[in-house]
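haha ok so turns out i had the wrong file open the whole time. this is the CORRECT one, sorry everyone. sequence first:
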Amino acid sequence: MLSYSQILLRLLFAGVMGIAIGTERDLHRRPAGVRTSMFVCLGSALFTVLSYELSKLWGDENFTRIAAEIIPGIGFLGAGAILRDRAGYGGLTGMTTAATIFVEAAIGMACGGGLFKVGATATGLVLFALVFLFWGENVLNLKSCIMAFRFTTSHADNVATEIQQLLAGLKITMSHFRVSLSGTQSIVEFEADVSPSQQQKIVSQLNRQGVVTEVVPCESPHE
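then structure:
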């Protein structure tokens, strides 16, 4: 049987690992921040400890009976973080958050099992992925984002046709496509889920004399 101080150390260590990951999530304004991450790690660690302690108390040789239920249980929490994109895109958002919650549960189990070095190493790897790989994705223009494009011109028909052909060639699905009038000018607007490099291609192709181009983000990059 573990002593109270041993159990307390494992729970506190798991909580600190969760706080470390959750702080990064909060700094980037992502779901599953400090409190959620701490609770996931702490809860997983507690279930792992209870699985061992109760098995010893009741004379059950299956020490992993309770701990084994953490994996399907955490799946429901992770699924709640995954949402459909705005109408018209059919993609998913929140995949990174769901994956982070899944790993947090594993870190909590490692801490609950007394594998402090394993838990700390896994936490370091998670933070490396969330911070440095995220930075690398932005530098290499790999991260997609839903952007709103607005083109003001006097020849909307030509621009609208060119937009449709350009996006079809780039295999980009657009949404909320509309053409409207503003005085003597026509406005062509649409939204699309694009990477920075795709956005640059669209703008460079359509930005010319007589066409005013505006691009603004509708959502943060998918994570």
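The chain has a mean pLDDT of 84.
again sry for the mixup
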